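Narrative summary of target 7.
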Amino acid sequence: LRKNAGKRKAQIAAIRGSSGDLVLNVDSDTILAPDVVTKLARKMQNPAIGAAMGQLTASNRNDTWLTRLIDMEYWLACNEERAAQARFGAVMCCCGPCAMYRRSALLLLLDQYETQFFRGKPSDFGEDRHLTILMLKAGFRTEYVPDAIAATVVPDRLGPYLRQQLRWARSTFRDTFLALRLLSGLDRYLTLDVVGQNLGPLLLALSLITGLAQLALTATVPWWTLLMIASMTMVRCSV
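Modeled conformation, tokenized:
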């Protein structure tokens, strides 16, 4: 591209200019293990698979307490959430730092991918999740390869991390809403998983709002709300 037109435009130009059967998407701040390409390509030998992602780790995990927590979060997201979804061939988001796609499938979806709008404007976030949803809607499987390791740089300060999470949350809610028609064709577990992913943060926000309202209106500490949030956090972390 002659000028920086954004990640999505760069991806589309690269896909259209490519000639191989498989296309590997890697972020610029991501380092791949030497055997990642081989392991992802081996998984993609099944023509029913449209995309496969590797396991993500934080390359700067030892920098701060936050990077260590994010590395743990990545492990949970990959080895619990994505691994469970992969049992049904329906990973809901093949993460951008390390994902391989079938070029023939991409070419079928590029027009939809390129013309995605959000609130009347061309979308400039959530490319990986949207492309994965398009793959699933087209009838392709999406997979997770746990031994294809990729290390990516994660935020080491709270401000950038919260902005990143807000951007990802917008993408999750938007594309899950667009994928509602998929739910009827998914396994019951996957339907529950998708619903839980989206209801969980909303219920947490509701709990915080009601707790603050109780504190403001009655001048009493919302111990039951705090206990419930702490309990759910402990359960989630102990899985």
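The mean pLDDT is 87.
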